[in-house]
Amino acid sequence: MSEVLGVEELSRHFRVGGFRSRGTLHAVDDVTFTIAAGEIVALVGESGSGKSTIARVLAGLYPPTSGRITFEGQVLGTRFTRETRGRMPMVFQDPFGSINPVLRVGHGLLRALKLHRPDISRDQRVDEAVTLLEKVGLSPGGDVMTRYPHELSGGQRQRLGFAQALASRPSLILADEPVSMLDVSIRIGLLNVMKELRDSEGVSLLYITHDLASARYVADRMIVLYAGRVAEEGLTEEVIATPQHPYTQLLMSSAPDPRLPLSEDVEHSDLGEPPKVIDPHAGCRFAPRCPLVRDECRHVDPPRVDVSATHHAVCFAVAESWASR
Prior knowledge:
CATH architecture of the largest domain: 3-Layer(aba) Sandwich
Low-confidence stretches: 262-266
CATH class of the largest domain: Alpha Beta
Helix content: 25-40%
Number of strands: 12
Structural class: alpha/beta
Shape: globular
Strand content: 15-25%
Distance between the termini: 33 Å
Mean pLDDT: 89
Largest sheet: 8 strands, mixed
């Protein structure tokens, strides 16, 4: 498959503090990954891991501190064109982030189509808007067009967000925690919409989530982030079946398994809070919480270990384990 997005050694830092004491928050450091055409890639990690920062850099909301981003074969600068933004739109965690609550549903869709599809007439835009709504499961589209956002449920508003994203005929959609504010009972419907858009429209998705279960359901590949750095990456089923990094194992153990007895101990327990990553020192950022920590973890950046051709982790313990095999 051809590559849609290439991210190479991407970093994004923020200056923090007051007049007397200032520091640099390393929200994202040296992150590298790719997304192929028609692929869903999940960025997984807890709050503060840098997932949403990466999405906002890709959307052009933050300029990168360093690194290189290529999209559809073109190197992106710090200022994105309207066409680039249309080809890589963002669906926000809060649907009201992209929907005007005082205007009817059809207004936003027609405006997006007018902006990104100036070649079609108004009547064609209306027909296209109805089609987009029905593609994301909002039927009948003509009826939904006349409603106000407050008349839709949370799940319907998120579907509307995907319809607006589709209006610009994107090749990649950045979906930032799109199901986290929804009831568990309706999350599966929106995840199915994402898969259907991939299958029917050929659009790629970067799915940002802290939920391993939803990532496993919808994503082809998974990238596990911790404190702004990639801890592990691979095909989703490989990462889920054989997690290598202690942080990935911690995430797995934190998801309840109804098949286990209540008395069974969890192998990897949470040993602390995520670091603030302000002016961080060299070494593994997971070291303060890691049950397998050693002296070198605190002072030297860990190596990348290729577990297979499609699976790698960044960890001294993993490197030692695989060296002994």
